[in-house]
Design brief:
- Strand 9, helix 4 and strand 10 form a beta-alpha-beta unit.
- Strands 5-4-3-2-1-16 form a 6-stranded mixed beta sheet, with helices on both faces. It has a 6-stranded mixed beta sheet with strand order 8-9-10-11-14-15, with helices on one face.
- With about 280 residues, it is α/β, with parallel strands linked by helices.
- Helix 1 packs parallel to helix 3.
């Protein structure tokens, strides 16, 4: 039987990356003390400001920040998932057009290597009944490239578990997760900055649905609290089983949890109810 200790770290990130980094170090250290092997941070973890993304991505501070993250993974011998971070280069090495970035999920190995990068595909351009009123991520973010023939590039092996990557608004598009599960994913990660209004309506439902329909563990790691005068996120980071049971979760405050999963629920669920083999469409 394989097992893996997973940690979710929920934060209230701000526009000051140095403050955010200090909080990440604190919570990652505590999660590592509790035996976490895979530690997942939320979307916008080091910078909660769309307007400042490009300037950070182009600055010398970017190098220092990513080096700190690399060292953090090495120090605690963990796989560290940066839920999203602004990068000014595409995976091909081409520059993103000025004033925009790629919103990239980055995975650092215990050896400190950047072993996986996933660029957010779906951008949150919507109207919401909150103080912000509307969101348009495409103003500051260039969407990632979609290549369903190479979807395995979004999956990383962590101690025998295949872990699929996504970011926030992606969770509303079930076809992405179906392709990931078809490619062999056992665990699906959803680092996010879900607004309070949309989170209260849909966050838990969407996470549970993605788990049930793909018979995978699903870990949603959200931001929480007020980040500025108009932006509030929902929190409620949670881990769901392949049958949709909530195994662990947080409320609306910053914090973390560690939970040990094993492969028995995966095999049991898939053998007793082989839904994916029954597909007709």
């Amino acid at each position: 039987m394989k097992s893996l200790r997973i940690a979710a770290i929920q934060l209230t990130s701000t526009a000051e990356w140095t403050e955010n980094l200090a909080m990440v170090k604190k919570w990652v250290g505590l999660a590592a003390q509790d035996g976490a092997r895979l530690v997942v941070l939320p979307e916008n973890v080091f910078l909660f400001s769309g307007k400042a993304m490009r300037s950070l991505a182009d600055s010398s501070a970017q190098i220092d920040l990513l080096e700190e993250v690399r060292q953090l993974a090495v120090r605690h011998a963990i796989y560290l998932v940066v839920g999203s971070h602004p990068l000014s280069e595409r995976p091909t090495g081409e520059n993103v057009p000025i004033n925009r970035v790629r919103q990239s999920c980055l995975v650092f190995s215990p050896a400190g290597e950047l072993v996986k990068r996933y660029d957010k595909i779906h951008l949150f351009d919507v109207a919401v009944s909150d103080k912000a009123g509307a969101y348009k991520e495409s103003t500051f973010i260039e969407p990632g490239d979609v290549d369903v023939t190479d979807i395995e590039s979004q999956i990383i092996d962590v101690d025998g578990f295949k872990v699929g990557l996504s970011i926030c608004y992606d969770v509303r598009f079930p076809e992405l997760y179906r392709v990931l599960s078809h490619a062999g994913a056992d665990v699906l990660l959803v680092p996010a900055a879900f607004t309070y209004v949309t989170g209260k309506m849909h966050w838990s439902i969407l996470l549970a649905a993605r788990a049930i329909e793909n018979q995978c563990f699903v870990l949603g790691v959200n931001q929480c609290g007020w980040h500025n005068k108009t932006r509030q996120t929902y929190g409620h980071s949670a881990l769901y089983s392949p049958t949709g049971e909530c195994l662990a979760g947080l409320e609306e405050e910053a914090g973390y949890f560690v939970y040990e999963i094993n492969d028995l629920p995966l095999s049991d669920c898939r053998e007793k109810m082989p839904c994916l083999s029954h597909r007709r469409i």
